[in-house]
Amino acid sequence: MISDSQIPTSPADSRHFAARLALFYGATFSIVGTYLPFFTVWLKAIGIEAFWIGAIVAVPAVTRFTILPMITAQAERRNVLRAALISLAFVTAIGFTCLGFVRGPLLVLLVFALTACAWTPMVPLTDGYALKAVARLGLNYGPLRLWGSASFVFGAIISGVLADVIAANQLIFVVAGAAWLGALSGFALPRVAGSGLQAAVPQRRTTLLRDRRFLLIIAAAAMIQGSHAAYYTFASIVWRGAGLGGSTIAGLWILGVLAEIVVFALSPRFTLAPSLLMLIGAIGAVLRWLIMAHDPPLAVLTGVQLLHGCSFGLTQLGTMGLLLRNVPTHVMARGQGYLTAATGLMMSSGALLSGAVFERGGVAVYYVAAAMALGGAMLIGSAARDLNRSPQPVQPHSAGAGG
User: Fold this and answer.
1) Are 120 and 344 in contact (CB under 8 A)?
2) Do 157 and 250 touch, CB atoms closer than 8 A?
3) Residue 334 and residue 315: Cα distance in Å, rounded?
4) Could you read off the pLDDT of 376-398 as tens digits, one per residue?
5) Domain definitions of the chain by residue range
6) Which terminus of the chain has a smaller tally of CB atoms within 10 A, N or C?
7) What pTM value is reported for the model?
8) Record: fold of 11-196+203-387
9) What tens digit of pLDDT does each residue of 207-244 get?
10) Helix (H, G, I), strand (E, B), or coil: what is residue 335?
11) What is the C-alpha to C-alpha distance for residues 35 and 259, in angstroms, rounded to an integer?
12) How far apart are CA 57 and CA 64, in angstroms?
């Protein structure tokens, strides 16, 4: 066990550290792999209407700009990232288990809201924890993060198989099982002392929200990633309505994430500026949603899913690269919290709007998504030159210091 006073310095220790962090990424992201493909299918199966589905799915995004920033700030300020991650993982597992025993839109909304308060801070806290290691130990972000994506694939495969053999109103227990695996994996998470991962450039905690470049980065990322709200909320329902089986639906989700995994795996070889990676990601998102708005046949849809490597993967890499250029490591978790809060605001707004648009226009909801991604592309494109002049302590996609 790596104690708070023992930050790994040898290559062997760093590899051991990376392996245990990758394990936690994998275990916790298995929750997302079971949640995204079939949570809305479960909601519909227990009698929740489209408007309420949109409202319930928007809850995690709402917690991202309300509860989440407070949790990430407190965990970093008190130097308890590991303890916070373990505690939040157990509360998340309990919450998803309880969901299996409640019915009615208001009660489901309440229990899910409490669960989301614990679940949503886990990703930014883990990313903040990982970026501290990227900056201090010279690890690669992409190869670490790809285990989360790989675990998503595994979770989607399992849930896809189970969706064809168990009742749809029992699918929530698949998500709960994944959440318990994530909770137990937290005990293997290495300890990282905040003092061992100091910032390259001193900066007061309050200056992040007064930094124009930081605000631009999180605004652009929020618009591009937030454009996925319609996809996350209604893709499985549309595909199910088109007669696709559970295994096919899971396969479509998996195909998108496989493209994301390839991007993360190859990221140490990327030499493009982070802002350009984000711009390419945004353009890929616009193209993806415009095609989805025309309800393409399965053959076309299969190819379109590969654009997830751009719309999510390249956007994520570019965002992390810009954060490492602009945010000191001692406030990295706080910066991740603000990023996730901004994304949550866009995601919740997108999910609520998608619920209303989908009820009237069906797949036309993807035009809303395309407009959001286009806004992000225009924002990051207009400031790319300025952002590329930022200080460059570490890039997560560089060969030497991160994925």
Assistant:
1) yes
2) yes
3) 20
4) 999 998 877 777 665 544 444 44
5) 11-196+203-387
6) N
7) 0.71
8) Growth Hormone; Chain: A; (1.20.1250)
9) 777 888 889 999 999 999 999 988 988 888 889 888 88
10) helix
11) 19
12) 13
